[in-house]
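Researcher: We're teaching a course module on how sequence relates to structure. For the next exercise, students receive a sequence and then see the predicted structure as C-alpha cells, so they can try to spot secondary structure elements on their own. Here is the exercise chain.
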Amino acid sequence: MKSKEIGFDISEAVLALGLKCAVFTLSNVENRDADREFEEIKARVTKEVLTGLSLEKIASDPILQGFRQLHEAVGRSNRKYVSSAENLLKVLLQTGQLPHVNLLVDIYNLVSVKTCLSLGAHDVSAICGKVSLRLTTGEERFWPLGSDTLKPVGLGEYAYVDDQNNMLCRLEVRQGEKTKIRLGTTECFYIVQGNPVVGSEYLTAVMEELIVLTKRFCGGQERLLYVP
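Model: And here is the predicted structure for the students to work with:
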C-alpha cells in the first residue's frame, strides 16, 4: 500500500522555548488489540518503573519538571495542564498498571513511562496536509480525545496543527479525537517530545527504541520527518 506523504515544520517561536522533538511516520503497520509477548514485556517494564516510584519522585524528576517549565513559559497552569508522561506515571502509581487501548498505543505509552518523555501517535489518514508545531492563534479547532465537542483554545500555546487548522495535540497534554489511533490504523504520525532539559541524543535514542519495539510487534516502515 502506498503511504500518504506528510510534511512537518516547527516554528522559531517554539524552538525559542527550548522544546525538542523527534517526528516520524510508520507506514503499513498492522495494529491489533493486544499481543501476548508484548504483554509480558509490559508487565516486566511496569514493575521496574513502579520500583521506587512515588509522588515525590514524580515531582522531582528533572524531565517532568522540564515540561512544567514549558507550561509556565506559555502561561499555562501545571495543575490544569499535566504532561502526558506525568499523567501516565500517576495512573501507574495509583492503579499499578497502564491503561489498555490497543497495541500501537500501549507500546508508546510503555516507552513513555520508561523514559519520562511525552509520546503520541496519530492516524495519518485523518491528517490534512502537513503538520506544524507552532504557537496557537486561538482560532484552532480542538476536539479533545474522548470528547464529543470542540473546545476553545487559548492564544500562545504550543500545539501540533494540520493545514486545516485541526489540532492534533495541545501542548504535550491532550491529543485530539479525530486523529486517534484505531484498530484499523495503517499509518501513524509519531511525536517524541522533550523539553529544555532533554538532550538530543536521549531524544533520538528514545525515538529509535520506539521504532524498534513498534516494528517488532506491528511491522511497518519508518520515515523520519524531523530529528533535533
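Model: If you want an answer key for the exercise: Strands lie at 8-10, 21-27, 118-123, 131-135, 158-162, 167-170, 174-175, 187-193, 221-226. DSSP finds seven helices and nine strands in the chain.
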